[in-house]
Specification:
heterodimer; A: alpha/beta; five-stranded parallel sheet; three-stranded parallel sheet; B: Ubiquitin-like (UB roll); globular
């Protein structure tokens, strides 16, 4: 039975002017083949996929274009600024991405996943350049979904300068280490949503497997963005299904309210009426 | 005249436009965006934007990414 059939409903994920039914956003990079990517996107149930802006190959006009394999009437494209190491390049890249999406008449033309990196080894975001770029892009009319560290202070800054959503990393991009500092994500959630509960926070990067996604969602984030965990799984299509279910499971668990942790056990079966034990046995334990 | 496209020097006839370059490279104009000397040239200006010797073009498309 699918979730819809149970009658359990959930609000959609609202990111600025965009409404998404799936809370999972997936990347399109690193797949062995474009066909495998296509099947994995389908299996993920996602309605929004990230893409990168890169130089066109000049001598291979017969080469296949990613856009031949993505139904851009079905998916909202989210262009990123991956590979940029300063605000200037990020703004240029965002403008180029917008220009392509305008040509495709894709609704993603008005937003961008801002990513300004600090170094190639960690791929950690440069917080100063990220805040600068975010400010400039907001000024240019972009809805900015902002990739950042899990630092709550920077997260707050990004919201202040007008980011549509803040997207703290669980751990470094492609590292598969999961959510390394859940307490920082909790503080981000408190700072960003405290007086503004609908403000979207998305965990972006670092996810290794389905339990990482469920765990992130259980913390109360609004969605998860991932790429490598599906694209480099031994069986990407199967992992895409797992990620879809994990997103739903984590979301439902968060909404349901988990039980408090306790040091000692609490029996699930009645303690009265157990045969073979006298009242004295029970009280003496 | 010589112009640079994605950091490669190429020869084009004088008066060539951005649209001419896209056509010569056999690119699908829908899938690309073009900058001339770091300034974006919107799609509706590709046919009218004439290039001059030494212009630097960036021609980009979308690829897989996270």
């Amino acid at each position: 039975m699918s979730l819809a059939e149970t009658g359990i409903s959930d609000a959609p994920l609202i990111l600025g002017s965009h409404t998404l039914r799936s809370r999972l956003i997936v990347g399109t990079g690193k797949y062995d083949t474009l066909e495998l990517m296509q099947q994995s996107l389908e299996a993920s149930g996602s309605e929004c996929v990230t893409v990168a802006v890169r130089r066109e190959r000049l001598y291979d006009p017969t080469g296949r274009n990613l856009l031949d394999y993505i139904d851009f009437h079905r998916y909202t494209l989210l262009p990123n600024t991956a590979g940029c190491y300063n605000a200037k390049d990020a703004v240029r890249t965002a403008k180029l991405g917008r220009e392509i999406l305008l040509g495709l008449e894709n609704p993603g033309a008005d937003w961008v996943k801002l990513e300004v990196l600090a170094d190639t080894k960690t791929l950690l975001p440069d917080p100063v350049e990220t805040v600068l770029a975010c400010e400039q892009l907001v000024e240019l009319g972009f809805q900015v979904l902002c990739y950042t560290t899990d630092d709550p202070v920077i997260a707050k800054r990004l919201k202040q300068v007008g980011a549509t959503a803040v997207m703290p990393a669980g751990s470094p991009i492609g590292s598969g280490q999961g959510i390394l500092n859940p307490n920082n994500i909790r503080i981000c959630l408190e700072y960003l949503k405290g007086e503004d509960p609908d403000y979207p926070v998305i965990v972006d990067a670092g996810v290794g497997t389905a339990s990482d996604v469920a765990f992130a969602m259980e913390l109360g984030v609004d969605g998860v963005l991932l790429n490598t965990a599906i694209a480099h799984a031994r069986d990407p299509v199967r992992m895409a299904h797992a990620m879809r279910h994990a997103t739903e499971a984590g979301r439902l668990a968060f909404q349901s309210g988990r039980i408090p942790r306790r040091l000692y056990a609490s029996a699930s079966s009645p303690e009265d009426g157990v045969i073979g034990r006298t009242r004295q046995d029970r009280t003496s334990q | 005249m010589k112009i640079q496209i994605n950091e490669e020097l190429q020869e084009y006839p004088i008066g060539a436009t951005v649209a001419d370059v896209i056509q010569t490279l056999s690119l699908n104009p829908k899938f690309i965006a073009v900058e001339v000397n770091l300034e974006l040239v919107p799609r509706d200006q590709h046919a009218s934007r004439q290039l001059v010797e030494g212009d630097q073009l960036e021609v980009v498309t979308l690829v897989g990414g996270g």
